[in-house]
């Protein structure tokens, strides 16, 4: 049996329920994992609340670490006892055990523990594709990263700094500003009392930045466009304050021939070779010490509703992990 979290309707944290389900042997191409740590991410809130609608009833959770306890036919790269992690689903991470396709998991290096792995896979792989593929950050770039003290932000800002970029980050409080400064941000803007667009223009002597990474969504989108230099790239990859309204493409023309993209980790990691290569690059920067993974909150899986409330209320920093 496996104890797992399900929702039968979209809504607040109260819709999260526990069910006991039979745990079958893995089919061809699958492995069975005994999970040891589960990542908590803002996309989980979108799934639970219906911002990203799911067919119901549905499991939740896209990220976890664990140990392989059974291997199905035609799995050649994994064996019982291997420590592995995943960060791009499929849904079902909120459980003490599960079946998953073998090509969706990666082996963990010995020096990365399970809790840290569960706090870094989805967020770290997101940072990897944003910085190395969506816009390839290089030495000398000045970039703007919103929510710099969040789970993705703390990883991405350290990583961008290690690449030689000047990093401008936005945060919501002085406490988060200090955290962002300690994790790679050269300039921190507290958006609750500063106009971030004006400050970016001031920091860049009016030039703007070549790329903006924005997971905040509705409340920052328009201002972010005004931070870009001509031919700059607007990367909107989340909706913490709500969905961005429809955009007239002519706006991109009038603001300097801008580019706009709405990437997803599922698209970037759809192929096993991309997932593996991205994970290896993530492990490398973590093992080198260039990027430190901060797991700042842990909850028991039994307290998942409280964890969702804290995340939704912006009371968390860095990574958050659920322990089965």
TrEMBL record:
SMART domains: PKS_ER
SUPFAM superfamilies, sorted: GroES-like, NAD(P)-binding Rossmann-fold domains
Pfam family, one: ADH_zinc_N
Molecular-function annotations in GO: mRNA 3'-UTR AU-rich region binding; NADPH binding; quinone reductase (NADPH) activity; zinc ion binding
InterPro entries linked: ADH-like_C (IPR013149), ADH-like_N (IPR013154), ER (IPR020843), GroES-like_sf (IPR011032), NAD(P)-bd_dom_sf (IPR036291), QOR-like (IPR047618), Quin_OxRdtase/zeta-crystal_CS (IPR002364)
Keywords: NADP, Oxidoreductase
Residue stretches making up the Enoyl reductase (ER) domain: 11-322
Gene Ontology cellular component terms for the protein in this record: cytosol
NCBIfam families (alphabetical): PRK10754.1 (NF008024)
Protein name, UniProt field: Quinone oxidoreductase
Originating organism: Govanella unica
């Amino acid at each position: 049996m496996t104890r797992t979290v399900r929702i039968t309707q979209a809504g607040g944290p109260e819709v999260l329920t526990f069910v006991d389900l039979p745990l079958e042997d893995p089919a061809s191409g699958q492995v069975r994992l005994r999970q040891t740590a589960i990542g908590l991410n803002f996309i989980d809130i979108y799934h639970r609340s219906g911002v990203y609608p799911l067919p119901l009833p549905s499991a939740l959770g896209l990220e976890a670490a664990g140990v392989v306890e059974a291997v199905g036919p035609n799995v050649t790269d994994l064996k019982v006892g291997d420590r592995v992690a995943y960060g791009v689903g499929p849904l079902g991470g909120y459980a003490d055990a599960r079946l998953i396709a073998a090509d969706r998991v990666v082996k963990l290096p010995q020096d990365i523990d399970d809790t840290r792995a569960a706090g870094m896979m989805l967020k770290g792989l997101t940072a990897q594709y944003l910085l190395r593929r969506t816009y390839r950050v290089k030495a000398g770039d000045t970039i703007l990263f919103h929510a710099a003290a969040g789970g993705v932000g703390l990883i991405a800002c350290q990583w961008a700094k290690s690449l030689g970029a000047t990093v401008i980050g936005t945060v919501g409080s002085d406490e988060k500003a200090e955290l962002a400064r300690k994790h790679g941000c050269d300039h921190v803007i507290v958006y609750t009392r500063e106009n971030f667009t004006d400050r970016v223009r001031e920091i860049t002597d009016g030039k703007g930045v070549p790329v903006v990474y924005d997971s905040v969504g509705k409340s920052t989108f328009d201002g972010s466009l005004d931070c870009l230099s001509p031919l700059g790239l607007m990367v909107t990859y989340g909706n913490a304050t709500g969905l961005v309204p429809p955009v007239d493409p002519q706006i991109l023309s009038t603001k300097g021939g801008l580019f706009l993209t709405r990437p997803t980790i599922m698209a970037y990691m759809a192929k096993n070779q991309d997932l593996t290569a991205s994970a290896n690059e993530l492990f490398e920067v973590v093992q080198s010490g260039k990027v430190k993974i901060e797991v700042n909150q842990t909850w028991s899986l039994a307290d998942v509703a409280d964890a969702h409330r804290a995340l939704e209320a912006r009371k968390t920093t860095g990574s958050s992990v659920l322990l089965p």
